[in-house]
Amino acid sequence: MNAPMTAAKEPMTTKSHREKIRISDLHAFYGESHILHGIDLSVNQGELVTLLGRNGSGRSTTLRAIMNMVGKRTGSIFINGNETINMPSHRIAHLGLGYCPEERGIFSSLNVEENLMLPPAVRSDGMSVEEIYEMFPNLAERRKSQGTRLSGGEQQMLAMARILRTGANILLLDEITEGLAPVIVQKLGEVLTKLKQRGLTIVLVEQNFRFAAPIADRHYVMEHGHIVEEIPREELEEKTELLNTYLGV
Amino acid sequence: MATFLGINLFALSGQLLIGLINGSFYALLALGLAIIFGLLKIINFSQGALYMLGAFGAYLGLNHLGLSYWWALLLVPLAIAAIGILMERTLIRPIANEDHLYSLLLTFGIALILQGLFTHWFGSSGLPYAIPEELKGGTKLPFMYLPNYRAWIIVFSLVVCAGTWYLIEKTKLGAYLRAGTENPQLMQAFGINVPLIVTLTYGFGVGLAGVAGVLAAPVYSVSPEMGSNILIVVFAIVVIGGMGSIGGAILTGLAMGVVEGLTKYFYPEASNTVIFLVMVLVILTRPAGLFGKPA
Hints:
Number of domains of chain A: 1
Number of strands of chain B: 4
Helix content of chain B: over 70%
CATH superfamily of chain A: P-loop containing nucleotide triphosphate hydrolases
Oligomer: heterodimer
CATH topology of chain A: Rossmann fold
């Protein structure tokens, strides 16, 4: 492993126990396109951190780069204290990561239950199917339906439920409220709050700032593949104007 | 002479039987192609050559190693699968991200090389392979005499096809395969070793060609050209059934065998072209195939 030994190894004992994700100087490419230009960010255990920014600022690519789903990536990504920059995608998930893609990624050739059971468990203490059906009763009712026959909201629930069952304790959620009715967005907010109470670590790419603001601990603002601002919850109020400039609201 | 409305029932049922047997081979080979196309998006032109290799495997096993038909039926498909796995890892994987035309040409080249080598070694006239003792003889049915080995071909290939269908459509492993067909990248992000599944799938798909080859050895003569002759028809069947459709490949394979058999009775001149005629009709009316999902 070509990990930067000096900086990375040192905090393993005390700090890294809390540090679930630590990214340094991450560059990501799709073919010839250079999308991320040296990202640095870290997420601690139990934190809910959002990536804010306009479309095309590199937020989704950051999540995909963490999962090694981009063409090429350089830099360093520590997950639970393990350097993953040279790890194949399928091994990264087993460090306890659950990824929910923007397009939801529900498989049309599988029914709801098959979709739910598809991802292998990555840790031992995942939610049971009963717990999941309790949290998302709609899915229980439609367990034999083809996955893509569900409504957009139900598909989003399924995409979330699927990674909760695996026991993943670091969730990467990409635009989960996009295009959904307010009542469903509210339901998702409740789910995220519950997951936070359970101690899960969450990275949320979100367009809907009103949804993200009350539940997030910290915000990273991205622009043109860089992180341009880090805003802790306490400073949110005083920096609202700045944030609005970045987001173009 | 048993006739009905001027139809010679003996001759008709004879052709139907031949049709079903050909259909069994079509189904096995089309199934292998469909599985490979579904997950790898590769049009595997070497499927016919590997079928030929299966038949030669049985022949060589018997004559050089004293391997009985039954052992051959078990071991040869495994050997063909191993060859397929080697092929996927060393030749196909490096060009997996290129245009599909490359893999098509690659597998076509492999087929030509194999066929050329076996013609060089064994000549192009067929070699005999005896029907195993246990399956010699036959059964007399009302309108026909049914040789046991031919019944065995139909039953065995149906069992293999049904087993494969069940594995893919009803099990967890099959769910991985179906999901991998749709979105391999996401599957991998879920922690599933997709490259391994791709390799094993390729091995399984060509292993089916090996099964067909061993089954064929006692009824068709074992010859280097046997694969290329049948492959074109099998491709037509995959197109009719719908690229990548598992059940479609099986049903269409059997049905087209029967259609061919019936044509042989009613209008023999068209028996070699009827499947292609069906293919043209299907492409014109249902471009995604009878069982395929429209893109």
